[in-house]
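As practice, study what follows.
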Amino acid sequence: MSARRLGPVGVAALAEALADPVVVARYAAKVVQVPGSDCAWWTGAISGRGHGRFWFGERRVVVAHRFAFGLAYGADRLDDVRVLGHKCDNPLCQRVGPGHVVASSAAENRREWVARRTLTGSPLGDPRGARRRARELRDMARRDPGEVAADLERLRALFGEQLALW
């Protein structure tokens, strides 16, 4: 997923939001832990591609995991990163770091998607599509994170565990 550069006004607005404890608390309130999952799950609005969307300021929106990346590394670093990849293949994941949300490139992100989308049980090949899958899992996580854990366990039992490719 590519993103345009924020530009000086966007970086300043995002930096202000990242430093505002009220905005950060509102963001954090939309993130839950699912038992048995290393991901931090988004429970807010969802984009057409299944990624979280987070509004800050007046009429400003950012992909939620980009906000998480900004919390970890700052708005200036975020402006330098055009693409963030989900190594965990969970577009709702907000955990920044190895195995989860990392700085990537369009080519690397596409290569990894192509390599993993046809693996048995891969969330990338879910017949519901990214948005529907994300919405259903998000709705479960809103009701009870344990529901997501039970669904993930059901899928693991059905498809088995996949070894990481790297």
User: Anything to note?
Assistant: Residues 7-159 form one domain. The mean pLDDT is 85.
